[in-house]
Design goal:
Elements (H helix, E strand, L loop, with lengths): L1 H27 L1 E3 L8 E2 L8 E2 L3 E8 L7 E5 L4 H5 L22 H10 L2 E11 L2 E8 L3 E8 L1 H8 L12
Antiparallel strand pairs: 1-4, 2-3, 4-5, 5-8, 6-7, 7-8
């Protein structure tokens, strides 16, 4: 009887621990962004300061537990073709998964739209935090999605590789 009781206690503690870890990763750390933070910026082709994009229907989340947990969805009247004439592309961007409850952001569907050419990816802001770029994808029907990517300097900084001359100094 003692072995079964100890086994049940261990199993119960493991299940409780798993539930707490799941909750913290999927819900606890995330906060929904207030309407006052409803801004999407794009970097011009000439590398000047990022400029605000006219948007509507903004939904966003962020978390302080990781520099790449920012996600947002919005709509815009601008077309990807018109934006491509003024703003810098962001090649190689891959959307990161969002929590299931943030249902406007489906990373697999956004990735498929990027691959098919239905969505165009632009540079939002470089080094929004050292080594992290904010990326904006806009579809042909005016839906927009924002997430953050680790750039080359961020990869080097996080794995300990020497940064090199092409990376800005870390503050």
């Amino acid at each position: 009887m003692n072995g079964k009781l100890v086994g049940l206690i261990v199993l119960g503690v493991a299940l409780l621990f798993g539930a707490v870890v799941y909750y913290t990763q999927v819900y606890y750390y995330y906060t929904e962004l207030p309407e006052s933070e409803a801004q999407v910026l794009l970097t011009p082709l000439d590398g000047a300061e990022p400029e605000p994009l006219a948007i509507a229907a903004f939904q966003g989340i962020d978390a302080t537990s990781s520099p790449i947990r920012y996600r947002a969805c919005f709509t815009t009247e601008e077309t990807p073709q018109a934006l491509a004439q003024r703003y810098a592309p962001y090649p190689g961007a891959v959307p990161r998964n969002a929590p299931g409850w943030f249902d406007c952001f489906d990373a697999a569907a956004i990735g498929a739209m990027i691959d098919s050419g239905e969505a165009t990816v632009f540079t939002g802001q470089r080094n929004i935090e050292y080594g992290i770029d904010r990326v904006v994808a806009i579809t042909s029907d005016g839906r927009g999605f924002v997430w953050e990517e680790i750039n080359d300097c961020g990869d080097k900084a996080y794995d300990g590789t020497p940064l090199g001359d092409d990376c800005p100094p870390q503050e």
